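ARCHIVE CARD
SHELF: 3
SLOT: left
DATA:
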Amino acid sequence: MPAQPSRKRPAKAGGTPSAAPPAGLRADARHNRDRILEAAREAYAAQGIDVPVTTIARRAGVGVATLYRRFPTRAALVTEAFSEQLAVCVAALDSALRDPDPWRGFCSLIEKVCAMQATDRGFTAAFLSRFPDAVDLDGERVRAEEGIARLVRRAQESGQLRADFDPSDVTLLLLANNGVAGDSPEISAAASRRLTGYLLQSFRAEHAAPLPPPAPLELNRIHRLPTGP
């Protein structure tokens, strides 16, 4: 994810784009919630979203029961932990669609998302994964697919993006970028910028040679991760 540019919606408790705690929480409950989210973000960024909730609870200094009181499902924790990054991506997509230069808008979105992915191993996995009860995440993913398709079409109609580029190639790009890893966040970010630069140059319409047909890749069909602990 003809689509319309995504629009910001009112924040919902436990969903995106806001990560504000639900009203009425006691100070200690709010503190526990914040510690859980901080521990989850750190664990997901370093190890991806397969980190067991028991590990997150231990890092947060709370019991597993406390974690589940605040976040009843793994999907709820993942969605809330990445709400800020998702809001940044939504804003980047909106900005790209508003850019009067379609190619510049296309490149800006690709560069932004790949840069985020390079420094946070969990974000793209969370976004590409399907959690049956993560309605907000699924909704944002659909909006992203529609926005990306429109962005691709605009860049192709301007004559700057190769005509055989398929929106599913964005997923292919993210999968390739996900494989770039270094010994430090700085090295990973530098390698990602290099890869992204190479790929964006290959996407330009000038001197484009025929390619094999696109693979049937969609943002909501890449991963099928378990939703349990």
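SLOT: right
DATA:
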Amino acid sequence: MPYIPPNNRPPIDEAVDVLAKEIADAMEANKETAELGSRLRLAFMAVARYIRDSESGKPPAASGKTQDPAQALARRILDIATSYGIKGGWTGELNYAVTRLLQAVPYQLYKRGEWQEPLRYWIYAEAVGALTRTAWDLHAECADDYIGNGLCGVFIDIKDEYKRRVNTAYEAAQIMKSGDCYDRTTFRTQLVPVIVNGVEGYQEIMLPPQKLQ
């Protein structure tokens, strides 16, 4: 759940933007503008490992960088979450930070002219691949405790919410533009236009069983 208190957001946003710039700079400099997933995965793991080690009472592994934006973001997450006084209270701040990073890197590449749009299906697929594989990696690396389960749960939850909040709207736009492809199954949904408080959009309805031609 990324909807953390408003006062906690600006310092995390600041750290996210620094990390997003580092990722976008590397992708641009190395002509790797399609490698969103691998770059995000490295950043996700760096943040998660720092949190895991810190919560376990171990010194976080040195990254070899003079300034490490991923570790700086992880420290910011932990520092802000201490105000809750709850073990594992950092999960909300981690969710917020990663959710913002998912948007910040594509936005930077779009603003630089490297991408024509900040969201296409392949961009979504790369992001979901990074989130999913990060959860798998953490499952393999972490103990079966509140730290490991919390970290894995956050990345899976972000993947699910990214689908619900972003990709569902993108899919609706593509269906209206290019047409649906579900016409050979008895049960399916259908988009219908709606206007809510003056805002035009689409709503998905569940159709009764359909007769197949």
